[in-house]
Amino acid sequence: MRVSDEDRERTTHRLQHAFTEGRLTHSELEDRLEAALTARTYGDLLGLVSDLPAPGPEPADVVTLESTHGHIKRSGEWVVPRRMRIATKYGGVDLDFTATEVHHSVVEIDLDLVYGSVKITLPEGAAANVDGFRSDYGQQKTSVPGRPLPGSFCLVLSGRSKYGGLTVRYPRRRRFTH
């Protein structure tokens, strides 16, 4: 069966990841990348990665999180999906992206909050576009830029919060740590 450009791109990412782990030499990477970009069938691509470990789970395209009278929190190491839909009544949302694995340059988050607030912590260099988010009786605080640095990602936030607000920031810098 013939491969698509997306299949070729996925294979090149896998080869580049194997190179950064030290599994391929520079010349092996160059040879395999050239073969991957000119591959026509799945057999051609599979031959290039058959001696490499299988990749981890792919992130879901859309993840929906819902809560009533509770708090939704994501922190630590987690794989970020391309789109998130978050709905909560009488609760809050705390999303920490500082230790996440992000496979997309743009991550869309649609929020539907009733009597709830959102706090998002981004890694340095990431950005957030909050133009699509509305807070009926609350405030928006954003201390991150709207455009990401090269190699980072951008959150695009939409939706609303009734009687709540939105805070998007970088991690707080710790002082006096020894």
Q: What does the model show?
A:
With 178 residues, this protein is α/β, with parallel strands linked by helices. Helices cover 21% and strands 35% of the residues. It has helices at residues 5-20, 26-38, 42-49; strands at 62-68, 72-74, 79-80, 83-89, 93-96, 101-102, 106-114, 118-121, 127-135, 140-142, 154-162, 166-169. A five-stranded parallel sheet has the order 1-4-7-11-9, with no helix packed on it. The chain is elongated. It starts with a helix and ends in a 9-residue tail after the last strand. The model has no long low-confidence stretch (mean pLDDT 89).
User: How many distinct helices?
Assistant: 3
User: Biggest sheet, in brief?
Assistant: 5 strands, parallel
In terms of structural class, how would the helical and strand content be classed? alpha/beta
Main β-sheet, spatial strand arrangement: 1-4-7-11-9
Strand content: 35-45%
How far apart the termini lie comes to 58 Å
Order of helices and strands: HHHEEEEEEEEEEEE
Globally, the shape reads: elongated
As a whole number of angstroms, the C-alpha radius of gyration is: 20 Å
Give me the count of strands: 12
Low-confidence sequence ranges: none
Report mean pLDDT, rounded to a whole number.
89
Helix residue percentage: 10-25%
